[in-house]
Amino acid sequence: MATFGQAHVSGGGKQSAIAPTDCSVPHAGNDGISSLSWSPTANILVSGNWDSGVRCWEVADPPGGQIQANPKAQVTHENSMPVLDTCFSRDGNVVFSVGGDKAVRMWQLGQTPPNNTPPQIGAHDAPIKAVGFLSSTNLVVSGGWDSKLKFWDARSPNPVGVLDMPERVYAMDVRDNLLVVATAGRHILAYDCTGQPREIHRKESPLRFQSRCIACFSDSTGFAVGSIEGRVGIHYIQKVDGRESFAFKCHRQENNVYAVNAIAFHAQFGTFATVGSDGVVNFWDKDNKQRLKGFPELHRPVSAAQFNAQGGLFAYSSSYDWSRGSMNLVPGNEIYIHRVLEEEIVRPKNKKSPSSGYRR
């Protein structure tokens, strides 16, 4: 086990955003923010919330100007059930969402569905925790607490494929043809989805406690998994010269340990962000085993985060995640958009990794 950089030291005054110029997204919702997703084709941001809402903003990023997020539309899931995850179709015109109503829903952007509830294209026997889109086959994949992975063609009410998971699905990610799944019991599975999904990897998590999030590397050679005990595991599925799997500690303050709520990879540089229940956002370089940027602590946990397709914008949510129970509730839900500076997310080529600050 290793630690990147120096331990985070909490400051006296906590901030609302990680940088003073970050854009505050209007109308972020009335309850916890569970997911953030960017369109692959435009600067369209979507959130999923525990208040049953799926919200959409059009984001303008003028050169040298202030980022602006303009609310475009909102739909809701049935029976005020929470939305737990969202994703886009390949062309960016459709948003898929899942949650506590056990339904996979499809929202065609620009259209208002009947009763403002997106039509259902699939279902599980328990709440659905994660959803993804497989570009090579145009299928939607959903992972539920019924320990099932289901594959959907939006034109058919029945799944085109079902895979039994060893336990409930807690996290999932898709990139290109790689699908990775983390379940209860610390199981991790990976699939090649070039055609019919084919299992290519199965292992026990390298982390000792419950998996909280998982994300594919930007080059699809492996994945990063985060846990509730403030650790991240870097694992290669494909052999890469000079690279080995490892794990490191993060999101810890003195004797306090916090969950890693989300991991997001930068598509261009292959570096990544972690956000946690400690209200901290960090940018990391896994290849050089180095923390690139540690931002000031926020006054709420950071529950979700994602880079846009070009990597120039980073969306993150400041929202209570209930990791410390109702007695420590910090009310309010906010989404911010940070303009990413290159020096924050990539190590300068002429800068050597420090010999200190990386502990085994």
Task: Describe the model.
- The chain is an all-beta fold and 360 residues long.
- Helix content is 1%, strand content 48%.
- The strands form 8 sheets. A 5-stranded mixed sheet has the order 1-22-21-20-19, with no helix packed on it. A 4-stranded antiparallel sheet has the order 2-31-30-29, with no helix packed on it. Strands 3-4-5-6 form a 4-stranded antiparallel sheet, with no helix packed on it.
- Mean pLDDT is 92; it is low at 5-11 and 354-360.
Estimate the helix proportion, in percent.
Answer: under 10%
- Note the total helix count: 1
- Distance between the ends: 5 Å
* Outline type: globular
Q: Specify the structural class.
A: mainly beta
Low-pLDDT ranges = 5-11, 354-360
Supply Rg.
19 Å
Tell me the total number of β-strands. Answer: 31
Largest sheet: 5 strands, mixed
Average pLDDT number: 92
Q: Order of strands across the biggest sheet?
A: 1-22-21-20-19
Amount of beta strand: over 45%
Short summary:
Helix content is 1%, strand content 48%. By secondary structure, the chain is mainly beta. The strands form eight sheets. A five-stranded mixed sheet has the order 1-22-21-20-19, with no helix packed on it.
Q: Layout of SSEs?
A:
Elements: E1 2-3, E2 23-25, E3 33-38, E4 44-49, E5 53-60, E6 68-76, E7 83-88, E8 94-99, E9 103-108, E10 120-123, E11 128-134, E12 139-144, E13 148-152, E14 161-164, E15 169-175, E16 178-183, E17 187-192, E18 198-204, E19 211-216, E20 222-227, E21 231-236, E22 246-249, E23 252-253, E24 256-257, E25 260-265, E26 272-276, E27 281-285, E28 290-294, E29 302-307, E30 313-319, E31 333-339, H1 342-345
Parallel strand pairs: 1-22
Antiparallel strand pairs: 2-31, 3-4, 4-5, 5-6, 7-8, 8-9, 9-10, 11-12, 12-13, 13-14, 15-16, 16-17, 17-18, 19-20, 20-21, 21-22, 23-24, 25-26, 26-27, 27-28, 29-30, 30-31
